[in-house]
Amino acid sequence: MNVKPACVIIHGSTFFAPVLIPLLFYFLSDHPYIKEKAMEALLFHVLMVIALFISSLLVIVLIGFVLLLIFSLIGIYYPIKGIVYALQERPFHYPIVHGWVK
Question: Predominant location of this chain (predicted)?
């Protein structure tokens, strides 16, 4: 399996199937780099869902509005950055979760 298109699909899955696509690539690929990127993307998506859920609960005390905006921008920015880096064949690591995937 070619690494470049696989990484583009994995990073782009944020916008159409954030859990299913990384899981498919993780279990169906035998390339270690693709497996690493799939697990990073999956963990990043799960982390963003948790952060957005907690932020939505904090809307009651008004700080949630700011947090929702910040986490929404983060959830959009990093997958797009990952797509661009994959197209340029540069290494990319999601913040925070990269250390969890070693």
Answer: membrane
